[in-house]
Task: structure prediction
Amino acid sequence: MRPILFIVLFAGMLLSGCEKVIELKLDNSNPVLVIDGGINDQNENQVVKISKTYSFTEPNKFNGVSEAKVVVTRPNGSTVTYTEVSPGVYQSVKTRGVPSNKYILNVTVDGKIYTATSTMPAKVVLDSLTFKQFNLFGKLSTYIAVNYNDPVDAVNQYRYILKAKGKIEEDMVSDDRFNNGNKVADAIFYKLEDLKQGDSLAVEFQCVDPNVYRYFYSLKQSSGQAGPPVAPSNPISNFNNGALGIFNAYTTSKRTAVIK
Amino acid sequence: MVILRWLAYTVILSIFTDHDVIMPNTIRIVLILLFIIAQPRFVFAQNKKTVNGNVTDAKTGETLIGASVKLIGSITAGAVTNAYGFYSINTQEGIYEISVSFIGYKTIKQNLNVTKDTRINFVLEEDNQLNEVVIAASKRNENVSNPQMGLQKIDMKDINNVPVLLGERDVLKTLQLLPGIKSAGEGNSGFYVRGGATDQNLILLDEAPVYNASHLLGFFSTFNSDAIKDVSVYKGGMPAQYGGRLASVLDIKMNDGNRKTYTVEGGIGLISSRLKAEGPIVKDKGSFMVSARRTYLDAFLKLSPDSSINSNTLYFYDFNAKANYQIDDKNTLYLSGYFGRDKLGIADTFGFNWGNATVTLRWNHLYSNRLFSNTSLIYSNYNYVIQNFMEENDFEVNSSIKDFNLKQDFEYSLSNSHNLKFGVNAIHHTIAPGKLTASETSSVNQTTYEDRKGLELATYISDEWTVNDRMNIVYGLRLSSFSLMGPGNIKSYNAEGNIIDTKAYKAGEFVKSYFNLEPRVSASYQLTNSSSLKGAYTRNIQNVHLMSNSTSTSPTDVYIMNSNNVKPEIADQVALGYFRNFNDNSYEFSAEVYYKWMQNQIEYRSGTDLRGNGNVEADLLYGDGRAYGLELFFKKRFGRFNGWVGYTWSRTERQFDAINNGKWFYAKQDRTHDLSLVGIYKASQRWTFSSVFVYNTGNAVTYPSGKYQINDRTVFYYTEKNGYRTPAYHRLDVAATLEGKPGKRLQSSWSFGIYNLYNRQNAFSIDFKDNPDDPTKTEVVRTTLFGMIPSVTWNFKF
Result:
């Protein structure tokens, strides 16, 4: 369901606007705390990343925040403490979350506590990856598609993370508003043309709760990649106390494909 | 005066009471209204006489709208022809000089002995000697003496001469060169009036509301200027007969058609061709006009050797038709229609089309010498269809808004100092937000979102009162109501957007009703023969709202109506103006200031998805707005060289508790400075040159003030909403028109134009992204849509 995207692309192509990199004076806001991480249903080291915002003109980096206290509380009251493994990156011991459980994340930085909750949805498994050909703009192009069976009796939200040659190239969300209860083959519109024989593709398929879905949808929308450009704003975080970012309790399944 | 007292009463009432509480008072107001009309002083005194009739063009028989008819004698009385070219003057028995004038036409002066009620029609001849000094009598000072404020008219001749993008003459784009009316974006036919959004303009084509007035994603307006006779735009001080939108009324009237002879005219341009045919049905009794336009951009696409381009479809067409027939002196029928559509297709993958259709049937009837009536039956429809043919995912979406509209308007010349207008209006809306169909094998489910039905009822009365030689007042009141009607499952939401109640309603059941009083006053006081002060207060109500959270408008934007949660938008505007003409009315100057308060404005929560969203109201936020500004306008009206300068200084702000920490922020339509220069020079009988320069402050936008990483990808951090500005916009266009040699059967002309002469790289969008070659860097990318674009058009007429 991304027809609007096509219209924008199409109009853009016809009018073939002229693009130029320009200098723009942007303000430098005070650094704000960003928390990104969660807990999934795999028995592994769960990760939470804590960083701060930095100036637009600086090179991209992970501006990690050290010495934070990171604790996840399970519904039964037991806790998992995450320890810092590198600046700003916090890891738990091997543990797994359980679908339909509600988790609470508490992060303490400089004496201030930031709290978020997320409920792990019921698991839907990624069945397979397939290659699909589309005649877009009259040119036959190949894209990768995720195949799964959407359960009919639940409202589901999904997140697809595509890695090509180990680098994240696409991070998007989808829901079952238009295809509830169906066998779904959803294409990820990332161009595969530049890949060579033997290059690997990996898709992580997550089931996420509605707040997480909306967070990533909003992120996409602000970047103009989810239809007509929307006046950008910070996505609504599930943290209190003004922290940016998202706490995500999710189920995950992965599939890989190799270009032949 | 009773009406004044009544007006004062209702103004106070509507300002100081909650709208839901007004209901019991409406009955009282209707009673007052009846009482006023029934008053003995309103019964006509017998010693007075009426002079009335029509004013038409000598060559085409087209009725002339806004022509001035004046009686000069023992008393002086006058009137201006209405939308149907009809005038009516109350006077006393006596001998008068009657003078009839209209801009661009030779003035008629003759003696008239009024002994009884007299019907007299006038035929005006066009005055083509524009380069000669025009006789003083036709230089009218109406802009100074007319009590109407905030009204701007566009001369169709100017539209033909002003340079435009790709040579496509465009009413809406020429309109944007006037102060207080701003373009919604590069090459965009959407416009902002005095801080209003694009959906807050009431756009009427022969009285039918046009819901989406643009083609090709906004680059061209739906109005084919060949078919248009008169364009008026009210920025404030709207007369009481108009209602339904907050910011402005754009009243466009189509040509009636030549009543004398058959003519065909047309034009061949770079992207489109036009053809118009008109002529008498019965000579001097009735006529028809048909006009069509189609773009052929798709033909160019076909020429491309690249299969990614030549397999696509992209075009639009317009069809205007009108017929009228004068049954007798007292009855005339008009039937007019518009049909336009955009079609877009990407190979065999995807199809998208959208368009408007309107039909207006009108009946003019003269009940008496002083009671003119018009009854209109109007149908208006806007819809879009999206088709996706991709296997396993195929679907089709249909969405529409459909209106049936009944209007009854009366004009009653009460005395030579009072002209009453009153009437009623009923509009039935049906909004079909979307019907999703798909094949058996598609992964998309068939879904139909519930239709919503609404009923708007309004009644109004207004009086144009000539208090004395210096003072004129137009004052009136509009009582409007809106009711959301069943059938449907209607939800209510709390402040967080959660559903708190769902109730099922049967067909015809009233879900929720809103009543509003809209007082309208506009007055002028003439300081001297060539200068005046004017003031106006207007309240406007809007019951139908466009849902668009994108930075530009899209054909798929949906309309919603008032509901349990969505309240009518309210705007109160006060305006003051100084009007002055110079050099025997050759130059016209005006300065207007305005302040506008807006209530129940709508914004969206972050991440609102409007596609197939049955719960869109859950994502709406409500707040206030304010807009204020100064508009300066200077126009040279006559001579070989004419044109105008328009300048606007303005502010438009909004306040929402849930946005920007509850602080006021600039609305996206806020622009501090806006300047337009228009010059038209008639160099010879055959050559006309023209030029347009525009400059405006950049739009208020949200840019990042920092960045961070989420899942190893760069994300931008935003602080203040609309706290930045896009770079300033400016552009110079030039055009030249070469008329063919006069006197030939086939008249033709060439129009040459250059859009954006000095190739200014104006920002259509500014994006922030990681450098594709060096992912550690983030860069700012400016996209420019139109550089320098030349155009040529050949026009003909025979």
Remarks:
- Chain B is about 5% helix and 55% strand.
- The two ends of chain B are 56 Å apart (CA to CA).
- Residues 1-29, 37-46, 130-139 of chain B have pLDDT under 50 and may be disordered.
- Chain B touches chain A through 86 residues (CB under 8 Å).
